[in-house]
């Protein structure tokens, strides 16, 4: 599977995926009415031939994106949705309606100054129960959960939404690189990593990605897990085979099994190959992240073995 990493996309593009969208008659309820029960939704009725719409539309998008999720914007092309425009009694455009709790509660018609547009958004945002929407940390956590479920393409899309708002967000950039690694695009991940500005390159999560790439490359040399299991079945103290089996598990995304084999190797012979098992576990912990539950539980198990 190949996924695309656009780097620091233009803010309006990815942010629009969160706060701005095009709507139509068929999706009006799910795009406007239902979401407005939780977060105010501003609807911009426009048309391609409308001169003032060309100024107002981008202004609305800019101010809604700046509100960070406290309000949403749905854009309706009246030429393509004449029935909906008639139902809403749109007689001239641009026409802007603000919905809350499923009902239009505010708005304006025609070209208005930026201050009036901003005031509308501020009024709606002030009454929003959603506050500023999900925080960056919450969005990153969502992306990491999606990646953990085995969907690097889906996680990439969410990570890039964060980068669109903040191109210097190191955890989001690291997340994108992890998506490439999980998708098997290790060389692309390495290429992207080499181009990182120095301010990002030194971040702990970027360093963890470097380790993850090193482990991924090493794992490709581990050999078939089935063969390694047969070797261990006949010789449980073949430490190289157990080490390689751990990396084969890692290559297959079986993180816990990889940790288990390395801990077992450490238990059997902690000094083997200059403490290779312990050192490899430390690399895994860095690649997983210090806050990862598997890292924390494995560290406790390693400490128990070290001091037993």
TrEMBL record:
GO cellular component: cytosol
CDD domains: ybbN
Any one GO BP annotation for this protein: response to stress
Domain of life of the organism encoding this protein: Bacteria
Record-level Gene Ontology MF annotations: protein-disulfide reductase activity
Thioredoxin domain boundaries: 4-126
Keyword Transport: yes
Statement: the UniProt record of this protein carries the keyword Disulfide bond: yes
UniProt KW keywords: Disulfide bond, Electron transport, Redox-active center, Transport
One Pfam family in the UniProt entry: TPR_19
Membership in a protein family: Belongs to the thioredoxin family.
Name recorded for this polypeptide: Thioredoxin
Species for this entry: Telmatospirillum siberiense
